[in-house]
Amino acid sequence: MHILPAARQGAAVSAQSTVAAGTVSRWLQAETAGQPAWWRQIAQRGTPVVEEHDRQQVRFTWLWRDPHGDERRSPIRRVYLDINGVTDHHSTEPSTLQRLAGTDIWHGSFLLPRDWRGSYSLIPVQDAQLPPLFSADRAQCRQQQRTWWISLFPLAIADPLNPYPAASTRIGQPLSLAQGRTPPISAPG
Length: 189
What we know:
Layout: E1 18-19, H1 23-29, H2 36-45, E2 49-52, E3 57-65, E4 78-83, E5 96-99, E6 105-113, E7 117-125, H3 138-152, E8 167-168, E9 174-179
Parallel strand pairs: 1-2
Antiparallel strand pairs: 2-3, 3-6, 4-5, 4-7, 5-6, 7-9, 8-9
């Protein structure tokens, strides 16, 4: 598996280099997925990984390494992805990464505009932080959802594989920065 070029630690936020469509799928299907050498290459590349999609959009893929290991050893049940301006903070089922079974890999992808630029945080949660059983009453459900979502803020972390310096919200929630590729690549021809 070849993942380079490496991102530079502490570099100014600029458009991330893209990889060919389907690259991340191949990485996740590799026999070495989740092994230390695989993670070293991901760390050198930096996350999120930006893949070509079409002239208007690129696919951003976030990868997170569960420090406890695979699903048999880890207390982590979900990893929420809080993307500023993208995540629906009113949803009872916010965006989550998916665990690659039998590994310490959590991953998730979004199609975003090529020139998208924003901040995000990862929120790994255990059983106690999973969403409650929401009320059928719409107003009560909204209040329950809001209370639950806000309770997750202290669990938010910056992306440890992101090559750019972490930032934080005004309430101290850690954030990572990401940017797509701009301008679009010209069609061959």
